[in-house]
Write a structure and sequence with these properties.
The chain is an all-beta fold and 123 residues long. Helix content is 0%, strand content 50%.
Length: 123
Amino acid sequence: QVQLVESGGGLVQTGGSLRLSCAASGSTFSYLSAGWFRQAPGKEREFVAAINRSGSTTNYADSVKGRFTISRDNAKNTVWLQMNSLKPEDTSVYYCAARGLGLLTTPDEWHFWGQGTQVTVSS
């Protein structure tokens, strides 16, 4: 079993930056893919970014390409999401997730979830 705890959310102005962290428990985290999803009020949860277990391969939603960067350090059991050039439409609760192999974009395909952290971008 893997437990995920997100941190780093907050309020930021348009054009600003935030760095989200996801701390994982359990020795198996390094064998799992990790990802970030987000969900705004009244909307479905959507894929943001994912990274394979070694960190050599990443996948991004078109809406965040060039602005967000996902990275991980397996020695620290941590995944980060660096978010730059933030826009009001990035306002959401951001969730960390983990699964076996694959960088799938469908939330139902991910097995482990954190509790989420709120990101609010003011205009």
